[in-house]
């Protein structure tokens, strides 16, 4: 009897394994066609000055309108794209598309256009020997100044090939492009990577912001991260601000920039445009803030 049940379990396990493998293979082969089929799309999320409420920049975030599964987020397909190497062509498509949109905003939105474009790049992309040239060509093609482009990298970059990766980052920075450390505070080596990486900005991970109002120590932790960034001359963006309470704490701590659902979810270009005119609507004047002054 026990044996039968074992076999039964095994078969269930086997079946779901097979389904998983099939799903993955399907996604992989769909992804190979997705660029020519125009299934990728960029969403944009604003990065806001916490002092003025003005939109400082936008981050481009990939979406895939899968013919069967619908709108698919990067957490599902980016890892597969990285393993298969498809991230290189998808990433190039995304960078070109984002620069084109950003240049268009500069023309059509004038002073209301965001001044900085953030694009994520993964480890595999940085290891592509043609990346630096492609980035510089793309910037030139769309007539953009290199310092309006921030490339976002994560500390997992440093796991291997450190010397080479640092060389690439230096080369990009020498050409005027800015490098941001994304998801700061999630890894083990966060502090040491600040010294190893040539950087311009830090993006503090959502997990730190999320806990700031519940766990007292997190405010202290954030305060020291902000002091450290200040010492190193790094710009700071707090990720994942979802409510006014978090916003007020960050403002009080003197964090300069923020991003999160409180301001806007990532949205298609034509929808995000309408926000460029709603300057300062998120940030209330200090005396209007609902702070407990006692
Ligand atoms: P990321 O670069 O750290 O982007 C921030 C993620 O947090 C986005 O998820 C965004 O939608 C989400 N987010 C923003 N504000 C909030 C908030 O207030 N609350 C919550 N719960 N989430 C918030 P998304 O768009 O699913 O992207 C996930 C990750 O995929 C990105 O993390 C980035 O690492 C990667 N990714 C996205 N686009 C690209 C791309 O074009 N190239 C590469 N290489 N990676 C990309
Ligand atoms: Mg990012
Ligand atoms: Mg992040
Ligand atoms: Mg992330």
The number of helical segments is: 11
What is the arithmetic mean of pLDDT? 89
Question: How many angstroms does the end-to-end distance come to?
Answer: 70 Å
- Sequence stretches where pLDDT stays below 50 over 5 or more residues: 1-5, 287-294
| Spatial shape | globular
What is the CA-based Rg, rounded?
A: 21 Å
Give the ordered list of helices and strands: HEEEHHEHHEHEHEHHEHEEH
The total strand number stands at 10
Strand order of the largest sheet: 1-2-4-5-6-7-8-9
Bound molecules: ligand C2E, magnesium ion
Q: What is the helical fraction, as a range of percent?
A: 40-55%
For the biggest sheet, the summary is: 8 strands, mixed, barrel
Beta-strand portion reads 15-25%
What does this structure look like?
The chain is an alpha/beta fold. Helix content is 47%, strand content 18%. The protein has 11 helices and 10 strands. The chain has helices at residues 2-34, 74-84, 87-109, 123-127, 131-141, 162-174, 190-196, 206-210, 216-231, 244-253, 269-272, and strands at residues 40-49, 55-66, 70-72, 116-120, 149-153, 178-184, 201-204, 235-238, 257-258, 267-268. Strands 1-2-4-5-6-7-8-9 form an 8-stranded mixed β-barrel. Strand 2 and strand 3 (70-72) form a beta hairpin. Helix 3 runs parallel beside helix 5 (131-141). It is globular and about 50 Å long. The N and C termini lie far apart (70 Å). 34% of the residues are buried. Residues 1-5 and 287-294 have low confidence and may be disordered. Bound molecules: ligand C2E and magnesium ion (3 copies). One magnesium ion (MG) binds at residues 182-183, 203, 239.
């Amino acid at each position: 009897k026990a044996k039968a049940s074992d076999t039964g379990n095994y078969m269930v396990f086997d079946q779901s394994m097979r389904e998983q493998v099939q799903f993955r293979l399907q996604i992989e082969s769909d992804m190979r066609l997705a660029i020519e089929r125009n299934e990728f799309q960029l969403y944009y999320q604003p990065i806001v000055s916490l002092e003025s409420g003005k939109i400082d920049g936008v981050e481009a975030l990939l979406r895939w309108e899968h013919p069967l599964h619908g709108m698919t987020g990067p957490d599902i397909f980016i890892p597969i794209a990285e393993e298969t190497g498809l991230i290189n062509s998808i990433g190039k498509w995304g960078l070109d598309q984002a620069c084109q949109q950003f240049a268009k905003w500069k023309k059509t939105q004038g002073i209301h256009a965001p001044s900085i474009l953030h694009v994520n790049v993964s480890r595999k992309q940085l290891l592509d020997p043609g990346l630096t040239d492609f980035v510089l060509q793309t910037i030139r093609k769309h007539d953009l100044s290199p310092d309006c482009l921030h490339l976002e990298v994560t500390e997992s970059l440093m796991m291997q090939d450190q010397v080479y990766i640092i060389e690439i980052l230096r080369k990009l920075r020498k050409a005027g492009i800015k490098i941001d450390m994304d998801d700061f505070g999630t890894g083990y080596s966060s502090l040491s990577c600040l010294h190893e990486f040539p950087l311009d900005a830090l993006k503090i991970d959502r997990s730190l912001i999320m806990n700031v109002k519940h766990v007292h120590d997190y405010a202290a932790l954030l305060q020291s991260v902000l002091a450290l960034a200040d010492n190193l001359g790094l710009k700071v963006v707090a990720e994942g601000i979802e409510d006014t309470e978090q916003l007020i704490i960050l403002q009080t701590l003197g964090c300069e920039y923020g991003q999160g659902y409180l301001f806007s979810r990532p949205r298609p270009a034509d929808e995000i445009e309408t926000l460029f005119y709603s300057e300062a609507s998120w940030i209330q004047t200090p005396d209007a803030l609902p702070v407990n002054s006692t």
